[in-house]
Amino acid sequence: MARILPVPAFDGVVFGATGDLTMRKLLPSLYLRYRDRQFGDESRIIAAARSEMTEDQYRARAEEALRSFVGAGELEQDTVTRFLARLTYLRVDAVGEAGWSDLASLLAERPDVVRSFYLATSPELYGSICTRLRDCGAISPQSRVVLEKPIGHDLDSARAINDAVGEVFEERQIYRIDHYLGKETVQNLLALRFANPIFERLWNADIIDHVQITVAETVGVEGRGGYYDKSGALRDMLQNHMLQLLCLLAMEPPVTLDADAVRDEKLKVLRALQTIRPHEVATHTVRGQYAAGVAGGKPVEGYLTDLNTGERSTTETFVALKAQVNSWRWAGVPFYLRTGKRLPRKVSEIVVQFRKPPFSLFPDEVTGSEPNRLLIRLQPEEGMRLEIMTKEPGPGGLHLRPTPLDINFAETFGRGFPDAYERLLMDVVRGNATLFMRRDEVEAAWSWVSPLLDAWAEKPEMPKPYAAGSWGPTAAIALIERDGRTWYE
Ligand SMILES: NC(=O)C1=CN([C@@H]2O[C@H](COP(=O)(O)OP(=O)(O)OC[C@H]3O[C@@H](n4cnc5c(N)ncnc54)[C@H](OP(=O)(O)O)[C@@H]3O)[C@@H](O)[C@H]2O)C=CC1
Ligand SMILES: O=C1O[C@H](COP(=O)(O)O)[C@@H](O)[C@H](O)[C@H]1O
């Protein structure tokens, strides 16, 4: 059993409390933290949304959500009942007057406890919600605000959101969620690199040939077409989650694990990313859109049919690109990134491909000698595998074979991993911002992707089609094979 450190008493206000994110992720995560006694009956959850609803109606919806999204083995009726009793529902209009004075009165009952305002609404409402929170006197010195992604759809809109929230809250009070940072295996990248000198000494351009980051999903756009079609794979996944992974892989060792020490190092990586210039966009990036195909053994429709708008869309559901970090450590080491919907498997994986030995005692054609490779499996089947060359046993000669040194985290630790939101929600209450993004990081990430968005907007071509259930358009294979390398699958 992991050690669970209780958090201080808090009032957690969730705006967007009737929405998909709250029902699928936030309430189940809060329930599990309550069940494990990380917080208790001295804390309250105040659910706020636009709909007219009684407290009992809201609690009934919340219970339904728990039954749908918490594993059956984790639901304990008595605990569910006590958890639901922690929920209060308030009708609050983010852009009107309704509900704000009720919210302020409720919070005023406990002026000294931690207050977290979780904004699980559309980002256009963030500025308005923050201003109204200030105007109704709901913000105490112990308050913090959590911003869901996306923080904008480009650099200007991200700045506008950050400015609006920054008018009300100090940067130290703002927690920008990137749920990938809450995944156990993503946090483990820090442990892998900075608690194991055997790797850190090899973690540079002298020894590493290239790095691949793949985040593949089997789902299509599901019910989120309205949002997704305005976003696309670059904005939805690469600008945030994948660049954060790249930062953790490429950053220099921070001096401490303090939030700003870690974020300073990630920021340096984002700023060192080589700009992809307009004439390089065609060779360094690939956009794809899924067409009809097969997923999970069943025929599935293409993106345009899933969208069901009857209109053409140039939104990409797949993106691959080649990035370069201009630093002493990484000069000449490409980072290949790809992500997409309706790919053959749900898998998030990092491949660190080491260089060939500078001189080989074992001629390749005789021995099959291959350079070492480290695979870091973020999800599912979380673990790591280092492929090392070993001699095949037997008297027939000196034949080498890549052999895995394998760690499967579930087997090693004897338990599964909590959802990222469980960790992140408790970090907010604890006041630990290490796994959240700072304003300058978000804006640096937008700055880097901006030239790509501009180039694509200037020439709005259809993305390359790929059959659902394939690994994306063939151009994505060409992107890496032009460099004499190949995607690991
Ligand atoms: N769903 C997901 O998987 C993910 C979502 N996100 C982000 O989380 C946020 C929420 O997403 P999601 O839950 O899917 O969105 P939904 O559309 O499902 O929910 C929106 C919520 O906002 C509330 N709302 C809308 N207008 C107002 C208003 N004027 N005043 C008060 N409340 C209002 C709605 O209340 P009501 O229903 O009562 O009108 C509802 O609770 C978005 O920023 C999204 O990008 C991020 C990652 C994943
Ligand atoms: O942020 C998002 O992430 C999910 C994928 O998250 P995962 O934890 O299941 O890997 C993605 O489906 C969604 O489009 C995106 O908005």
TrEMBL record:
Q: Would the keyword NADP be found if you checked this record's keyword annotation?
A: yes
Residue sites binding NADP(+) per the record: 50, 149
User: What EC number(s) would the UniProt record show?
Assistant: 1.1.1.49
One Gene Ontology MF term: glucose-6-phosphate dehydrogenase activity
**Ranges for the Glucose-6-phosphate dehydrogenase NAD-binding domain?**
13-188
> Ranges for the Glucose-6-phosphate dehydrogenase C-terminal domain?
190-487
Q: Which domain of life is it from?
A: Bacteria
Which pathway, metabolic or otherwise, does it act in?
Carbohydrate degradation; pentose phosphate pathway; D-ribulose 5-phosphate from D-glucose 6-phosphate (oxidative stage): step 1/3
The record places the active site at 241 (proton acceptor)
Which positions bind substrate? 179, 183, 217, 236, 341, 346
UniProt KW keywords:
Carbohydrate metabolism, Glucose metabolism, NADP, Oxidoreductase
- Principal EC category: oxidoreductase
- Which catalysed reactions does the entry list for this protein? D-glucose 6-phosphate + NADP(+) = 6-phospho-D-glucono-1,5-lactone + NADPH + H(+)
Role according to the record: Catalyzes the oxidation of glucose 6-phosphate to 6-phosphogluconolactone.
The Swiss-Prot or TrEMBL record describes its family as follows: Belongs to the glucose-6-phosphate dehydrogenase family.
Name-wise, this protein is: Glucose-6-phosphate 1-dehydrogenase
**Native source organism of the sequence:** Roseomonas elaeocarpi
